[in-house]
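BUG: 3D viewer hangs when loading the predicted structure for this chain

Environment: internal workstation, default settings.
Expected: structure renders.
Actual: progress bar stalls at 90%.

Input used:
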Amino acid sequence: MHKLFLVSTLLLLIACEEESSINNRTVEIQVSSNSLICSAFKYNEDIIITAAHCVDDSSVKTVKVAGRSVSVQQVIVHEEWDPKLVRNDLALIILERGDITSDINLGLNDLQVGDGLRSITLKDGKKKNKGHTVFRFDLDRIRLKDNSKNDAICNGNSGGPVYYVEGDSYTLVGIASGITKVRNDCNDGGDTIVVDINKQRDWILANIL
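Structure tokens produced before the viewer hung:
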């Protein structure tokens, strides 16, 4: 059975920068019950993808998008989400059932160690594009090395998109899940762990239909 929550208080804030299709789709979410701030990715206008640990809470109710309140039909947390092992750290926020079309591809079949990826992080309403390199694959997760200290993913960036870009085509490769060590200043090392969207594509599509 899927874990379904009728939504309770979720705040989505969209930053003003408009640099790319992916950039425009990156939003900040805040669950009021514990003040946890995360990021999320708008697959389309009706479906938002984020990390399970960001919304695994029955208190989430209303959503505000670009200053406008939007009713949410469901929050679907992956039924195999394991907070102890941090596996299947994925959730969907369904604003409305019906539209499943998107110009964003889901997952790369031929992603390899050493491939370069990009991410978008949010802090204080400002977005930054960052660079990473695939370090290794671990079941449903991908481990990334940051290209520089300035590219570190830190607190508040869980649930945000990691993607591959080729020309005008964007592919959502991962959703930020966590890091391998606690960072005191976000720039003191540790690898970025993301949910492998290629491994979760079937689950996503099955739950948005």
